[in-house]
Structure formats: structure tokens, C-alpha cells
């Protein structure tokens, strides 16, 4: 396993296949956007489904914050496609067969055997601004990501408050 990626580190670039069969490259997505990169154990399991649906339900808020949500697991493209379709997921799911990107980021394993759950908030310059690692609190990943994005984009929060008063 690689060294664990920490707050303040440059996010390691990578390329993985998307659920639509195309390719995703982190450095290309970062141009003008923050990225919420979340690693999860497996499509269609209870906690992973809850987490994906919470990201889905908050997706427009993430977009308003100038962020792209990207989910990564070792599931196949076919499994990702079914997961996306069943749950109407508007964000990217990437297939990390063999776990090379999970290893590159140093995502810890749960109980030493299962793929762990970790979320990295990466700013527009490619710097990791927050890491949240908890396999037992899947919904907290969404809440923490939004809190961090609010701190990174204070003008967005001010704009939302002024719109709410109008």
C-alpha cells in the first residue's frame, strides 16, 4: 500500500473507466471544479446504497458549490451501470478493478479485510482539503463533504443566504 494521502497533499492523478465505458482522469476534472472523491466497498449493499442515494439527493447542492462527486469501488462496469440505473445516480462511478487507485490513496481496509470507505475533498488546484475515513458512518461522508465545501466556497454560502432572504 502507498503512503496515506493526507490533508495538504497534492491529490494523486489517476485514470479509471467510468460506468458509461469512457475514461475519467482526475486532473482533467479538476479544471475549475472541486472534487468529492469517495471510495466505497461495494455496489448494492445496504450502507453503500444509502451513501450513494444521499450523494444523489444532495447532488445539486454539490454542483452549486462547484464540485463534482465521483464514487470509486472495485465493482465491474456492468455492476456500476445497474447501480446507477436502479438508484438514478447523476454522478460518476469508477471501476477500480484490482484496487490500484484505492491503494494509491492509501484507503484503509475495514476490519483489515474489507475495502474501506473514505472521502477526499480536493480543491480546484488539486490539493486535498479534507479526508473523512469511516466505514461505519456512510451518511456522514456527505455531510462532512458539504461542510468542507461551504468553508472552501464562502461566497457560495453568502449567495445562498441572500437568495433565501429575497
TrEMBL record:
Keywords: Antioxidant, Disulfide bond, Oxidoreductase, Peroxidase, Redox-active center, Thylakoid, Transit peptide
Name of the molecule in the record: thioredoxin-dependent peroxiredoxin
Record-level GO cellular component terms: cytoplasm; thylakoid
GO terms for MF: thioredoxin peroxidase activity
Protein task: Thiol-specific peroxidase that catalyzes the reduction of hydrogen peroxide and organic hydroperoxides to water and alcohols, respectively. Plays a role in cell protection against oxidative stress by detoxifying peroxides and as sensor of hydrogen peroxide-mediated signaling events.
Subunit note: Monomer.
Major localisation: other
Active site positions, chain numbering: 48
Stored Gene3D superfamilies: Glutaredoxin
Protein location: Thylakoid
Entry similarity comment: Belongs to the peroxiredoxin family. BCP/PrxQ subfamily.
Residues of the Thioredoxin domain: 5-151
EC number(s) given by UniProt: 1.11.1.24
Superkingdom as given in the UniProt entry: Bacteria
